[in-house]
Write a structure and sequence with these properties.
The complex is a heterodimer of chains A (97) and B (805). Helices cover 27% and strands 32% of the residues of chain A. Chain A is of the alpha+beta class. In chain A, β2 (28-34) and β3 (37-43) form a beta hairpin. Chain A is globular and about 30 Å long. Classes of the chains: A alpha+beta (97), B alpha/beta (805). At the A-B interface, β1, β2, β3, α2 and β4 of A face α1, α7, α23 and β30 of B.
Chain lengths: 97, 805
């Protein structure tokens, strides 16, 4: 369930249309435009949906570049330790072709 | 997740992004620090965090961050607006770098393996074990570090080995990442590291990425390039590679090539420049000479004349190059046309694609050749520039010279005059430095993993700041084979348990990043400094202290090499009153600034190859300085463009350009002929696909730190295999299916990702290496470049079969 903080470097001439398009999408929350960068929060249900949303954003006319500056962290997941004992999975144990 | 929680996260995401944008406008964000590093900042506390500067701990870009500390803990990270490298921006790893210190499983006490299990021991016992192990067989000891060693850490390790133990078996894992860039620069200019700098990215008309994905690997630099388009500037970007990536999407030209096709492409450009008579004759006449391979092969090769050079390139017609590389003849012509245009400013960028290559030295020297033959060199925007993956691959590995052949400052152990220079600075007796080049990384680990009775001469390896159990190629052969060799002893200093500590006999807990003083050197020759800001956890201690403490224990045990020619301890450190400080005692280590003392000794080496460094105190004041840093009228001035008269004080008046370390001793750079050659392993009926390995934006290298940063781990929790959708269809593999990846060396299971972040060309697959639960280096090949000894992680033959849903 990724929530990302993004900076979209945009073509200023496209800003009005871009805000209209992005603002109409439920996944997107728009912030200010500062120095040619549009602040966006992107909320998607899965990693693959997040990748698809990135592809959509990148393809939007006027979007030059996307900087990812923040990713959500769910505190219920934050404290999950790495699975040390299981690090070597059976498929890797002494594995050689 | 509850709606309230989700709304909170979205608001936080907006706030973080807004703060980042405001910082790039050089505005002080009203909301204070970006709530990105940790959520622990307490705005109610009247004192608030204290702030200090540091370079980011991750890649070789060298972004500066501001670190907010409160109650002894990092509570916030900001992009540093005063830093010329990143101008306030960070990538997602940089914004979260503070969390790298706070994984739940930090190593906090030394541990010794007893009866198969690691059990806690004290530091004194640990130091005794190491020192006695070395003393018993100093020639069988090896030190393996990385470009994550700070400059003083690498210098201390280098001095212990070469000035103390007369042992040259010291290597950085940088051998695995940029050694071919080094041999490329040395063979062309006679001295290592780029002549240009990041300022080139602000003015180049054309950027050519040679097997490079900066959108994920160096996102702040790529953002800097693409950002120019939003200001109405026209920047043409090329992507030459075997896989469509996030970089490709911002390029006007994607040139899909066959593995090793880069050799043909560069030769094709050279051929056309000559055939069309469109090379820069004036530049070549004044500044260049020609070279080709010698017999026997040497890094400097043999001189050839222009006619021989031209004749050698005659076969590389566009049609032939298309056949060899898979890139259309018209695209070769397009590149040649651009290089033929003197009004275009062209910068080439590369990283692992050209370096992790069994012909890495060749392709590096060919890209330099294209720039030199066309005259696209030495003015802002015209530069062939390699990028590094580690924060101090340049500063420590390349400049301190922590290689089996190296001495600080670009000197070599197999050069008698240079050994004498080093012995004089180190004040050790003549002859102390061993003249024999030590074992390079692959040979070192192969020796360690070979039974002693079968000639495996390395018996003990001490690993600091790297994770070879995950990053060496062909892990079954070069790492895991150690498990069955009872007389071999592996010491690992690290901050977390890793695939390497899993086989370690002794594990030492280390301080990380701003838990210690440090200095790094980034990809553009910029040396950076920071101070310790928080305490390391438990009994974790600085790597540099560990090295000095072992040296002192060796001194106590009577090793003669631990004394200099005057009978003083090699790491003798005095306070300002001239009184010796026992820095080998941890409780006294920070009584003086050991980094400053070591750096100011080390910088004496920097003058030999005109890589002059300023005094330590100058770096305290700045966000880094690019060497050579030269004093004039009491001011220390950095150099942006090396070898160019307008900026480099070492270039003679009226020279224009001067390659003052020229291998032909005439101030000229070398334009090489290097033929196309086939890859070391080619797909066949049994293993019909090409495997390329690499990285992802969320994780840094083997993931030891970033997989412990929850936002990054959640965003990219595991490795996967990218398969071309048409290949997947033919193999009956769907998105998310479990597949088995195998080579002649090993195999593993992964989930398939089709049309995901990257899309390989038909016949190719890609796997990132950050995931310690899915070790793709069980599969890779240890074949390496004959000069750089850097292995090829970018191409080997594999097969993929569907295992299940």
């Amino acid at each position: 369930m990724p929530v990302s903080g993004l900076l979209l470097t945009i073509d200023g001439a496209c800003e009005v249309e871009l805000r209209k398009t992005l603002g109409a999408d439920a996944r997107v929350t728009l912030g200010e435009t500062l120095g040619g960068r549009l602040v966006v929060a992107l909320d998607t249900p899965s990693q693959s949906a997040d990748e698809a949303a990135w592809a959509w954003l990148r393809a939007e006319p006027g979007v030059r570049w996307i900087d990812l500056v923040w990713i959500s962290v769910d505190p219920t997941e934050a404290d999950v330790p790495l699975d040390r004992p299981g690090r070597r999975r059976p498929s890797q144990e002494g594995d050689s072709a | 997740m509850s709606p309230d929680r989700r709304d909170f996260l979205k608001a936080t995401a907006l706030a973080a992004a807004t703060v980042a944008a405001e910082r790039m406008l050089h505005r002080d964000p009203a909301r204070g620090a970006a709530p990105t590093a940790t959520a622990a900042a307490d705005p109610q506390k009247p004192s608030g965090p204290t702030w200090d500067k540091a370079p980011c701990r991750f890649c070789g870009t060298g972004c500066h961050v501001k670190v907010g500390v409160q109650d002894g803990r990092i509570v916030a990270i900001q992009g540093d607006v005063e830093a010329a490298v990143n101008k306030g921006l960070l990538c997602v790893k940089g914004y979260h770098v503070g969390l790298a210190l706070y994984g739940k499983d930090r190593l906090t006490t030394p541990q010794l393996r007893k009866n198969g299990k690691l059990v806690p021991i004290g530091w004194d016992e640990a130091l005794d074990i190491i020192a006695k192990r070395i003393l018993a067989a100093p020639e069988r000891f090896a030190f393996y570090g990385s470009g994550q060693w700070t400059i003083p850490e690498g210098y201390a390790a280098q001095k212990l080995m070469k000035a103390g133990l007369s042992n040259n078996h010291i290597e950085p894992n940088a051998r695995l990442c940029m050694a071919s860039a080094v041999t490329g620069y040395l063979s062309v200019y006679g001295v290592d590291e780029p002549a240009g700098c990041y300022d080139d990215l602000d003015v180049a008309d054309v950027i050519i990425n040679w097997g490079n994905n900066p959108a994920e690997m160096h996102p702040v630099l790529f953002s800097r390039i693409v950002d120019r388009r939003s200001r109405g500037e026209n920047v043409t970007i090329f992507d030459i590679g075997t896989r469509r990536t996030r970089t490709t999407e911002h390029c006007q030209h994607y040139l899909a090539m066959k593995p090793n096709g880069d050799l043909a492409i560069a030769n094709g450009i050279l051929h056309l420049l000559l055939a069309r008579d469109s090379y820069d004759k004036a530049f070549v006449e004044k500044y260049a000479a020609f070279r080709s391979a010698s017999d026997p092969p040497t890094l400097n090769g043999k001189a050839i004349d222009f006619a021989t050079f031209k004749a050698a390139l005659a076969p590389y017609t566009p049609a032939h190059v298309e056949e060899l590389s898979g890139v259309a003849a018209k695209d070769i012509e397009l590149l040649a046309d651009l290089f033929a245009d003197p009004t275009k400013k062209i910068t080439s960028l590369w990283c692992m694609g050209m370096n992790q290559h069994t012909r890495g030295t060749a392709i590096n020297s060919l890209v330099h050749a294209v720039h030199l033959l066309s005259g696209h060199f030495g003015t802002p925007g015209n530069a062939p520039t390699s990028l590094t993956g580690q924060p101090s691959a340049c500063g420590t590995a390349r400049e301190v010279g922590t290689f089996a052949h190296g001495l600080p400052g670009g000197l070599r152990v197999d050069n008698p005059e240079q050994r004498a220079e080093a012995e004089a600075i180190w004040r050790v007796p003549a002859g102390r430095i061993n003249p024999a080049v030590g074992l390079h990384t692959v040979a070192m680990w192969q020796s360690f993993c070979t039974p002693t009775e079968s000639g495996g001469t390395i018996g003990t390896i001490w690993v600091q700041v790297t994770n070879p159990g995950q990053t060496l190629p062909n892990l079954n052969k070069l790492f895991r084979a150690k498990e069955k060799l009872e007389d071999k002893f592996l010491i690992v200093s690290d901050v977390y348990p890793t695939a390497t500590t899993e086989l370690a006999d002794l594990v030492l807990p280390s301080a990380l990043w701003v838990e210690k003083n440090g200095m790094f050197g980034n990809s553009e020759r910029r040396t950076q400094q920071w101070f310790k800001m928080v305490k390391p956890p438990g009994d974790a201690r600085d790597d540099c202290w560990q090295t000095i403490a072992v040296a002192h224990r060796l001194l106590e045990l009577g090793h003669p090499g631990m004394k200099d020619g005057d009978g003083r301890f090699l790491f003798e450190t005095k306070d300002k009153a001239g009184k010796e400080v026992p820095v080998w005692q941890w409780e006294r280590y920070y009584d003086v600034n050991v980094d400053e003392r070591l750096f100011d000794e080390y910088r004496q080496f920097s003058r030999f190859k005109h890589k002059d460094l300023a005094p330590y105190s100058e770096y305290v004041k700045t966000r880094g300085l690019r060497w050579p840093v030269v004093e004039k009228d009491g001011q220390w001035r950095e150099t942006r463009w090396r070898f160019s008269e307008f900026d480099d004080g070492y270039v003679g008046k009226g020279k224009g350009l001067q390659f003052y370390h020229s291998t032909s001793k005439d101030d000229r750079a070398q334009i090489w002929f290097r033929p196309w050659e086939p890859p070391p392993e080619v797909p066949d009926a049994d293993y019909p696909l090409w495997l390329c390995t690499g990285r992802v934006v969320e994780h840094w290298h083997s993931g030891t730190m970033t997989m412990r940063i929850p936002p990054l781990r959640n965003a990219m929790p595991g490795a996967y295999i990218e398969i071309n959708p048409e290949d997947a269809h033919a193999l009956g593999i769907g998105n998310g299916d479990r597949v088995r990846l195998e080579s002649r060396r090993g195999g593993l299971e992964l989930r398939a990702w089709l049309n995901g972040r990257g899309v390989p060309e038909r016949g190719h697959v890609f796997v990132p290496f950050f995931d310690e639960t899915k070790l793709v280096n069980l599969v890779t090949l240890e074949a390496h470049d004959p000069f750089s000894k850097q292995p090829d992680y970018k191409k080997c033959a594999v097969r993929v079969t569907r295992v299940g849903p």
